[in-house]
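U., I forgot to send this yesterday:
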Amino acid sequence: MKILVAGKGGVGKTTIAALLSHIFSNHEYKVLALDTDSVPNLAQSLGIPLDKAFKIVPLTKNMKLIEEKTGARPGEGWGVLFSLTPKVDDIVERYGIKVKDNLNLVVVGSIDVSKEGCLCPAIALAKAFLRHVFLKRKEIIIVDTEAGAEVFGRGLAEKFDLFLCITEPTIKSLIISKKLVKMAKELGIKKTILVINKVRDSLEAAKSYSRIFPEKNIPYHIVHYDNNLQEVEMKGLGVTNLPENSIIVHDVLLLYSKISKFIK
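Result:
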């Protein structure tokens, strides 16, 4: 199963992606977590120590790898020939980070050209790698994406089996999420779950959902606000440092139960 985790900035995408990655791996699934954010921090949320996380070079910034795979370095100028179909089947083994048994991470970095400038060889490498992962690898693939709608314009979103649209319980956030859900449906993503995160009042969150989604055709799942998470993040630690009885761990476990029913 290939799971897209997306939403507007600050809604908690990375935390949900990290918790799900650990929960799936704890249930004996092989998991590959991918960070495609321009400011990647999934490594830290997964529990990789800060000093090690800071040293990770995203694929789109790894000049040596880009030149090896595409035949060109980013920024060499127009007219430089490079491969649009580089060999990428060894990247997980060479550049993947083992978080624990059954869980690996690859920090891809942003594949949005408008944010990175003229990085055509880097973008070609990243997209080839993602296509390979989606088509050839059999793990649970969990992708933490760039904030906003950029992912839907990259020609990749349609390859996912499930879209987790992360939102806050505010009307403003839910309106943005409705637009993202519509875009995902138009691209052919068959299943969507709206994850309403940072909820302090479940009843009020449900009312807000009904206001913005009156047709109620998109299932939603509530994840409550958890002070434990703030304490853990203030220390620069990952989700593995959350107490087992944390409400956010409990709620994401329930989300896992819903998702696992879709796996064949």
